[in-house]
Design goal:
The chain has nine helices and eight strands. By secondary structure, it is of the alpha/beta class. It has an eight-stranded parallel β-sheet. The mean pLDDT is 97. The structure holds D-xylitol-5-phosphate (DX5) and zinc ion (ZN).
Length: 226
């Protein structure tokens, strides 16, 4: 089973409600919070995320690209999000951040940048509900997919299976029609797509196409293994 999470980073911020309602066939709504320090871009913060959670028909998947998630992550959990992802690189005590998120009643998720070894996420598998592997350098939409990150999904998938854990594996960055099969075959089951979805004329149709392409890739893969 694959999940599609359109990123509103590529939406029209002046018509955000309209653009959120246009992806209602997706599974999650991905909201990128950037602080201009952890990444060289600035998006939105607590008051806007709060309103998004209130009006979104989909559960909200907050991706925090901010410094000091030790203080801030739990504040986002209290806004009505379904899942909160923080960056391993930004946290002083990642284990504690994950615990605080779960205690606040949201799915806890840790993200790793392209330069961060996958072992840092594997060490936290018992504390999280999802691992986000960045397939671009965080900060901007519309960048090129980094296929060299695929071994991270393979390692994570093996570790999750070994542990018998129920941890989702999310890919974020450059996911679209041309890359979705690769990332799903590597082990990702939760796919963020920003420019691919919002660049399409019919956003919900694009969501369905991506889900179909991902499911086909998975089916082919399991047929090959049998
Ligand atoms: C980038 C963000 C992504 C971004 C992906 O730092 O975390 O969620 O919106 O955009 P695309 O899908 O266009 O690469
Ligand atoms: Zn993101």
């Amino acid at each position: 089973m694959v999940r599609i999470a359109p990123s509103i980073l590529s939406a029209d911020f002046v018509n955000l409600e309209r653009d959120i309602l246009e992806v209602s066939d997706a599974d999650w709504l991905h909201v990128d919070v950037m602080d201009g320090h952890f990444v060289p871009n600035l998006t939105l913060g607590v008051p806007v995320v709060k309103r998004i959670c209130e009006i979104s028909p989909l559960p909200v998947d907050v991706h925090l690209m901010i410094e000091d998630p030790d203080t801030w992550a739990v504040r986002y959990a209290d806004l009505g999000a379904g899942s909160v992802t923080f960056h391993f690189e930004a946290a002083t005590n990642p284990r504690q951040v994950a615990r605080d998120l779960r205690a606040a009643g949201v799915r806890a998720s840790v993200a790793i940048k392209p330069g961060t070894p996958v072992e840092r996420a594997i060490e936290l598998l018992d504390e999280v509900d999802m691992v986000l592997v960045m397939t671009v350098e965080p900060g901007f939409g519309g960048q090129e997919f980094m296929a060299d990150q695929m071994p991270k999904f393979e390692a994570l998938r093996a570790a999750v299976d070994r542990a018998g854990a129920d941890v989702w594996l999310q890919a974020d960055g450059g996911v679209g029609r041309d890359t979705i099969a690769t990332v799903v075959r590597a082990g990702a089951d939760t796919l963020v797509a920003g420019s691919a979805v919002y660049g399409a004329h019919d956003r919900n149709a694009e969501v369905r196409s991506l889900r179909e392409l991902a499911s086909e890739a998975l089916a082919e893969d399991s047929a090959r293994r049998d």
